[in-house]
Amino acid sequence: MISDQNQLSNQLNLQQQQGIKQFLTFMMADEEYGVDILTVQEIRSWEEITVLPNAPEFVKGVINLRGTIVPIIDLRLRFGLPSTDYGPLTVVIVVKIKFEQGSKIIGITVDAVSDVYSIAEQDAKAVPNISDSNNCEYVAGLVNVGEKMVALIDLQKTMNI
């Protein structure tokens, strides 16, 4: 078991030296998005939440996660996508995001978890600027994975509420 941990640690160190990051990908509105897997704390199935009055529409409420109150953000609404009913595949990805004033634990609801990809940083392409408004501010980059394109999310900008 110790050799398995050492092997995994060595593999992660080698990937970091080569500029390779792993991304957890998920689906929303038939598109695939990814977040740095090092920010992911856990993946939970949808559960009832406590609604907060006067919160922005995309803040669905909070849950109690082992004594920590975690805000739940509907990422579809945050991105301006049409809302959908939560179903059996709906999951909450609990992420820890570092900000200048410290780190925060936040849950984001997504339609379904997809996969984990190892992506070289140099493979990520910048988002083209197609208008005066910065409507792609939440996307850190785009990357081709096989025949599909994955949008890599900048969680700091997305969750800076």
Plain-language structure description:
The protein has 161 residues and is mostly beta strands. The chain has a single domain (2-158), classed as OB fold (Dihydrolipoamide Acetyltransferase, E2P), CATH 2.40.50. It is 15% helix and 47% strand. The protein contains three helices and ten strands; from the N terminus they run αβββββαβββββα. The chain has helices at 2-17, 75-78, 155-158, and strands at 20-28, 31-36, 40-45, 59-65, 68-74, 91-99, 102-110, 112-120, 139-145, 148-153. The strands form two sheets. The protein has a five-stranded mixed beta sheet. A hairpin with a 2-residue loop joins β4 and β5 (68-74). The longest helix is centred in the first third of the chain and has 16 residues, at 2-17. The mean pLDDT is 83.
* Ends distance: 42 Å
What portion of the residues fall into strands of 2 or more residues?
over 45%
CATH fold name, please?
A: OB fold (Dihydrolipoamide Acetyltransferase, E2P)
- Element order: H for helix, E for strand: HEEEEEHEEEEEH
Strand order of the largest sheet: 8-1-2-10-9
Can you name the CATH architecture? Beta Barrel
Mean pLDDT: 83
Shape: globular
Number of strands: 10
- Provide a count of the helices: 3
Report the sheet with the most strands, covering strand number, pairing sense and barrel closure.
5 strands, mixed
- Structural domains: how many: 1
Q: Enumerate the spans where pLDDT stays under 50 for 5 or more consecutive residues.
A: none
Name the CATH class: Mainly Beta
Structural class: mainly beta
Tell me the name of the CATH homologous superfamily. Answer: CheA-289, Domain 4
What helical percentage do the residues reach? 10-25%
Estimated radius of gyration: 17 Å
